[in-house]
Amino acid sequence: MDIKGEILRKIKLSQNILINIHKSPDYDSFSSALSLRYFLRKLGKKATVISCQKINRHFHFLEGAKNIKVINYSKFDFSPYDLFIIPDTATMERVTGSVEIKLPKGIDYIAIDHHQTNEIGYPLRLVESRSSATAEVLFDLFDKWRVKIDPRLATLLLAGILGDTVFLRFCEDRKKTMETVLQLVRKGADMDFLSEKFFEDYAFNLVRAVGYFLINLKREKNFVWSAMDFETYKKFGQPEGVREMAADNFFRGVRGVGYGVAILETKKGVVNMSFRSKKKVDVTKYAKLFGGGGHKNAAGATILASYDEAIKKIRTTLSG
Ligand SMILES: [Mn+2]
Fold first, then answer.
1. At how many degrees (to 10) do helices 27-42 and 134-144 cross?
2. Residues in the 5 Å CB sphere of ion ligand 1
3. Does 147 lie in the same domain as 33?
4. Are residues 154 and 25 in the same domain?
5. Which residues pair with 51 in a beta bridge?
């Protein structure tokens, strides 16, 4: 039996299943976890989506996003569960929220992902780096498993693909991704609804905070960067997704440089970076310098240090 068959077999043998949303979740994380839950419940399984962080209400429009359990991984009782599915998450730190927190033994795990940097080493592991999103990997799985995709599930899956490709701008395999999107639309996925939610539903403070990033943009030889410390972030009401929005929409597009990096101190002593590059530039190699990873044109990393130390480290590492 191939890995796809083995995954289905394991799912069928399990009863009470956990699925995670990764740290700093994006559309694909929500999409893949919620799609899996939708599918598992149709199969008659108990399925619970868990997250190490509070869910930003921006994502509440996604089917089932209001019913995600926020947990502390170091205190959570895993004993009632027999399977834990980890979609769209390349490292354990992104699962539990901290490098110090490990997952327990005595429960089975499945990893389903499309990150080429995936380092989760469970035996049941499907990493398709030719797919543009984990939602696309799931679409292929559901297709193979002959799962009926109704309009609600189609919309959920489409959200992940549109999220990771920035509405089809960045595809791993454009023909394959576009064909998947067409099939989802044919199955009733509501792309107009997603377009409205993606681009016409920004929180006021989020846009103002993007403005702060833009005004403070600096240029080095081959990249641009901008940073926000925790005090400033707090003043703006800690709008989630701000560094991704600044980097996705503006930093990567600056003429004459290969990439941009948005730096945000999300908590005192925790500095997150979002790298976004033009097509030809691979930013995973820069993210890896800080222990991070991701995709060729969109990667991230976290530095545990004071804001000033982190900025110094980033500048010397990237300009050196
Ligand atoms: Mn993804």
1. 20
2. 28, 88, 133-134, 164
3. yes
4. yes
5. 21, 70
Ligand 1 mean position, distance from CA 243 (Å) = 17
pLDDT tens per residue across span 12-41? 999 999 999 999 899 999 999 999 999 999
Range of the domain at 129: 3-198
Domain count for the chain: 2
**Domain containing residue 74: CATH number:** 3.90.1640.10
What is the CA(157)–ligand 1 centre distance, in A? 11
Q: Which of 182, 198, 214 is the last residue of a domain?
A: 198
In angstroms, the CA 124 to CA 106 distance is 15
Nearest Cα neighbor of 222 from 275, 292, 288, 169 is 275
Taking the centre of ligand 1 as the mean of its atom positions, its distance from the CA of residue 114, in whole angstroms, is 6
- Distances in whole angstroms, Cα of residue 248 to Cα of each of 33, 103, 164, 251, 297: 23, 32, 11, 7, 10
Phi, psi of 317, rounded to the nearest 5 degrees: -70, -45
Q: Each residue of 266-304: pLDDT tens digit?
A: 999 999 999 999 989 999 999 999 999 888 999 999 999
Is residue 164 domain-shared with residue 209, that is, in the same domain?
no
Query: What are 97-108's pLDDT values in tens digits?
Result: 988 999 998 899
Domain with 309 in it: what CATH number? 3.10.310.30
Distance 320 CA to ligand 1 centre (A): 30
Domain co-membership, 25 together with 88: yes
% the chain with pLDDT above 90 = 88
* pTM (2 d.p.): 0.87
